[in-house]
Amino acid sequence: MPQFRKLDLERLLGQVRYSAGAPWIQHLATLGLSDCRLAHFGCAGGAQTLALMWVLDASEAWGIDRSIDQARKTMCNARQWVCESILALPYESQAALTWWEDQVPLFLKQKRFPVMVKERDIAHPIRPYQLPDRYFDLACCSHLLYHILGEQGKEAVVSAVREMIRVTKPGGWIVVDEPDEGVVQRYREFLEQAGLDVCRVDVDETVIQAGEKLTASTYYCQFRGR
Ligand SMILES: C[S@@+](CC[C@H](N)C(=O)[O-])C[C@H]1O[C@@H](n2cnc3c(N)ncnc32)[C@H](O)[C@@H]1O
């Protein structure tokens, strides 16, 4: 495998590993969701979508964002790098082979990529691409609602949460992870207004790179069905 491709794959794997270590993703691993279908809203570049798929051993992972160019590129590149490296590694150095054995997650080695990327504004009532009803075991988002609140307002946040409810199976989970800068109740209100009971809230204090303290909170709602 040409060296630059290995470096690109290493960079992607670094992002996936970093995302997989996030407390809200780690906690999801305890919910018994393996082999699930998941929808990840506001997927941006797609590294978190891959991390979710990896940690939960999901059978399907859909990344949804209003702008999917970066995520689409990530998924195409990851597929291509993995396929190329499978062809090239037997002829590369022992070090490259060791790297592959030790560093590459099993789902990539096995070329399991059931990740779909869809372009959608989750808060907008007119939806050119309609996601299926009651299809997912988990609908989740991280650092999405505050964007919608800032750009589209409160009603749009409630409408986005209702959309997460619509696509989730009865008994499935809706998980919202937000930086809230100390106002823990704020997102709970939106979730309750949309018709969800919050069954658990985790508050996580993380020191971000600039040395500034950021408080993130994660809301776990088990959707009881209609
Ligand atoms: C701060 S990024 C979060 C990325 C990732 N989840 C993370 O935590 O690293 C917010 C993402 O939400 C997307 N987004 C914002 N409003 C949206 C909307 N109404 N519908 C769909 N995606 C939206 C943006 O395009 C962006 O990729």
Description of the structure:
The chain has helices spanning 3-20, 23-28, 47-56, 69-88, 94-103, 106-109, 145-152, 154-167, 185-193, and strands spanning 37-41, 60-65, 115-119, 136-142, 168-179, 200-207, 213-222. Helix content is 44%, strand content 23%. The chain has one domain (3-222): 3-Layer(aba) Sandwich (Rossmann fold). The protein is elongated, with a radius of gyration of 18 Å. It has a seven-stranded mixed sheet. The termini are far apart. By secondary structure, the chain is of the alpha/beta class. The protein has nine helices and seven strands; from the N terminus they run H-H-E-H-E-H-H-H-E-E-H-H-E-H-E-E. The mean pLDDT is 83. Residues 42, 44, 48, 65-67, 120-123, 142-144, 147-148 line the site of S-adenosylmethionine.
CATH class: Alpha Beta
Number of DSSP strand runs: 7
Low-confidence stretches: none
The bound ligands are: S-adenosylmethionine
Order of helices and strands: HHEHEHHHEEHHEHEE
How many discrete structural domains? Answer: 1
Q: What is the subunit arrangement here?
A: single chain
* Radius of gyration, whole Å: 18 Å
Alpha-carbon distance between the two ends: 51 Å
Q: What is the general shape?
A: elongated
Strand pairing plus helix content: what structural class?
alpha/beta
What value does the average pLDDT take? 83
Number of helices: 9
Give the second-level CATH assignment, the architecture.
3-Layer(aba) Sandwich
Can you identify the CATH superfamily? Answer: Vaccinia Virus protein VP39
Strand content: 15-25%
Could you give a short account of the major beta sheet?
7 strands, mixed
CATH domain fold name: Rossmann fold
**Widest sheet, order of strands:** 3-2-1-4-5-7-6
